[in-house]
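SAMPLE LOG
Freezer: B-3
Tube label: C17
Construct: single chain, 431 aa
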Amino acid sequence: MRWNSRFAVGKSGRLANREDAARNPKSKTEDAAALHPLMLEHFSCCCPVPRPARRGFSLMKSHKSFCWPVYTHRKNAPTLRGLAILRWNSSLAAAVLLTLTATVMYGQSPPSQPPPTSASLQSAEQLLDAGHAEEAIPPLRQLAAMQPPVKGAAHALGLACYRTGKLLEARTAFEQAIRIDSADIESVQMEGLTLYRLGQPAAAIPYLERVQQWMPHANADASYVLALCYLNARRYDDARRAFATQYGIEPASAGAYLVLGNMLQTANLPELAADAARKAINLDHGLPLAHFLVGEVDLFKSDLNGALAEFEQERALNPGFAPVYDRLGDTYLRSGKFQEAQASLMKALSLDTSRTGPFILMGKVLLRRDDPQAAAMYLQHAAKMDPSNYMTHTLLSQTYRRLGREDDAKREIDLASKIHASTELKLQPVQ
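STRUCTURE (predicted):
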């Protein structure tokens, strides 16, 4: 039966067809196929032998309850109207109709699988997260070299190279990641850290400043490195403000100048460190550790009188601070005041026995006072606390020689030489 003639059948013809369909289910199925061939194909796979139809049931009568898209999607109305007039009594047939209707209406299809590049990137990132950065580099190189580049591959490659010490390749990878996504804050930060490790602090400053502008408290390492870059560039006021931000203090406070002074001393800039500490003292005369810092710089310059005055002022402000007695003992020792030195070092040891410095200095003082037996006791304790200190073994060698223990003295001096040679700085090529 043709499509147009099916609708041209009169009332009597439709009643006759209904009776024929009730008597012969197969004819009903074939009739449905004439209306919609796709329905017969689907139905023959899911339900080749439908149950006999019930008289009086018409899908058209109830289609408003589950086929409402007929009224909203006009372009599909003829197809859906043709489906709706099929009189199917089976619940399975109704389910098939609903499935096909949804397919026609919305074009549903099985979920697509992720592209191979995404799966490869995910696999490489899992290797990176598991600590296998070296194994993640080859696939990440391939992904980063694709055209167009795979988003996220350059960033991951930069991290893998940074963690394995391949700093030049890491810099290139982070530059590519920033070109792909200028808002990739981690790549911007890592580019700055990489440049700093490559010995280019001035070039690192713009990247680290961008991180500070976006997220002022995001990463303590980046804040610290930015401050060190300012120190290297001799931008000391900027360095003070950066350290103040890191430590959560006012940039113009005495504490900020004291922190700057300590950082300058660590950077082997003693004169600038003392100047910063003196500024801190001018802002707050009772600030602890400021006089201590100035005294250490004076002692470094062998200004023993200046060092002694600063350490005494620190002791008056901070009497429970063990290192100040340590430094006083060292100052007295260099001044030849061995008794005062021994008394100060004993105070330091009474307050804190966790540091090797007072034990080593006490051994020196006792050797100067011609008491090698007592000196050996303090130096042996220091050697147990820190076996890698070559100065301890050097003094022990002198002590054993004074005691007539030549074999022990030779052993200690050989050990001191090996430790000293192993701790010398060696230049390494940058990868």
